[in-house]
Amino acid sequence: MNEPLSFVHPTPESPWGTYLAQVDRVVPYLGPLARWAETLRRPKRMLIVDIPIELDDGSVAHFEGYRVQHSLTRGPGKGGVRYHPDVTLEEVMALSAWMSVKNAAVNLPYGGAKGGIRVDPKKLSLKELEKLTRRYTSEIGVIIGPQQDIPAPDVNTNAQVMAWMMDTYSMNVGATATGVVTGKPIHLGGSLGRVKATGRGVFVTGREAARRIGLDLQGARVAVQGFGNVGSSAAELFNQAGAKIVAIQDHTGTLFNGNGFDLAELMPHVHASGGVAGFQGGEAMADEDFWDVACEILVPAALEGQIQPDRARRLKARLVLEGANGPTLPSADDILADRGILVVPDVICNAGGVTVSYFEWVQDFSSFFWTEDEINVRLDKIMVGALKNIWDTADRHRITLRTATFAVACERILQARQERGLYP
Question: What predicted TM-score, i.e. pTM, was given to this entire model?
Answer without folding.
Answer: 0.94
